[in-house]
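A reminder before we start the practical. When you read a complex entry, don't treat the lines as separate problems. The point of joint prediction is that each chain is placed relative to the others, so the output describes one connected object in space. Small molecules and nucleic acid strands, if listed, are placed in the same frame. In the example below there are two entries. Take a minute to note the order of the lines before looking further.
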Amino acid sequence: EVQLLEFGGGLVQPGGSQRISCTASGFIFSNYAMNWFRQAPGKGLEWVSAIAGGSDNTKYTYYADSVRGRFTISRDNSKNTLFLQMISLRDDDTAVYYCAKRGSFGSASYYSFDYWGQGSLVTVSS
Amino acid sequence: IQLTQSPSSLSASVGDRVTITCRASQGISSYLAWYQQKPGKALKLLIYGASTLQSGVASRFSGSGSGIDFTLTINSLQPEDFATYYCQQLNSYPITFGQGTRLEIK
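Here is the predicted structure of the whole assembly.
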């Protein structure tokens, strides 16, 4: 059974830093692209960042304009864990952060996210 | 790429058929997915490739469209279908979502 569990959310002051993680199980983690999304309270879904799967995936990372230069996505395939390091946090970064597994590269399902975590709330407030 | 989803909310009864539309600001071929969100639960993939039903999803869900205009149809609504639905485009980065459709019980 595929499981994605996010950790590391909490209260952080504006300008502060936070690292959230997502532990994966039930699939060969290294083979799959992984993404972070977020949802501000009462709002819709927003894509945050992506990292490729495969043997040299650290080369391929992507960011939303709203977080580029402040957030860094990374992964530790030996620990089946995805990370999102966030710095210079702002009030509008307050959201539930979700990790999601992308479908198999080379298949039609690549254009979808077939598994999601339940999310980790990051609150930026003084 | 902007996705305009409509309606933003919808009231329906068990057994009804409902349709949600999603319009892209430019052509996205069939690189569109639909998701269901319920409070406190992980998002659930319903449809990918605009019209392919995800394994394990009830056959009352169906998707259609390509290019700019897409639809999600739910036939014979069941009590567990009352939730919020989102379309998502994966044609290009940044990946974007429609604003969501909240489906409520009439």
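Discuss with your neighbour: Chain A has no helices and eleven strands. What might explain this?
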